[in-house]
Amino acid sequence: SQELEQSPQSLIVQEGKNLTINCTSSKTLYGLYWYKQKYGEGLIFLMMLQKGGEEKSHEKITAKLDEKKQQSSLHITASQPSHAGIYLCGADMTDSWGKLQFGAGTQVVVTP
Amino acid sequence: EPEVTQTPSHQVTQMGQEVILRCVPISNHLYFYWYRQILGQKVEFLVSFYNNEISEKSEIFDDQFSVERPDGSNFTLKIRSTKLEDSAMYFCASSESGGRAETQYFGPGTRLLVL
CB A97 to CB B106 under 8 A? Predict the structure, then answer.
């Protein structure tokens, strides 16, 4: 079974609409990271949430960590074409000290 | 803003050849990592490195792989005898320390194609 599951796999959203991506861990989380990747390019760090039910925002992107559910959500408000890309969650889990495990990614397409 | 850099951006090699992928981590960072992403698959951890030693490695990181910090700025990944299945994007990352929930900053990657 997958240790870090992301949903949805992909989504198409109209410019100006909101979107939410979820990331669920099968193990205790010590740190949950959100990265953005353009196809075939590097990973751009967005936010990191630590154990303890944090919520962080940067511009139009908000990420939350639900400690009990071992789940994080990434919410984009009023999406723009610049938000298009692949969003990856990565986690520092109980048996993976110092190494990140990643979800499969969510491809976001923003249409006019 | 400081960033991790990697060279080359693309590398094409013949099966069985040795390749060296280079990375310059962020200057005050002490922990270094290599990850890879096979096309269409997840990003996978390969190895972490601290104080001139491997801290942890995955089962992917077999005897064909090695890492080195040859000087104060570079961090390299060597694949001794490349296989077709080594074709992937290789990412270097660094973090200030190696503690839990320590942000890792990734480089732009080197795309390796083994023919």
Answer: no
What digits encode the pLDDT tens for the residues B42-56? 999 999 999 899 988
Q: What is the pLDDT of residues B2-41, one digit of tens each?
A: 799 999 999 999 999 999 999 999 998 999 999 999 998 9
Contact residues for A71 (Cβ-Cβ < 8 A; gap 6+): A22, A23, A24, A25, A65
A33 — contact with chain B (CB < 8 Å)? yes
Q: Which residue has the tokens 């480089």?
A: B107
Nearest alpha carbon to residue B67 among B15, B21, B5: B21
| Closest among A43, A85, A103 to B94, alpha carbons compared | A43
Q: Is A13 on the interface with B (CB under 8 A)?
A: no
The phi and psi torsions of A82 (rounded to 5 degrees) equal -65, -15
State the average pLDDT for chain A: 89
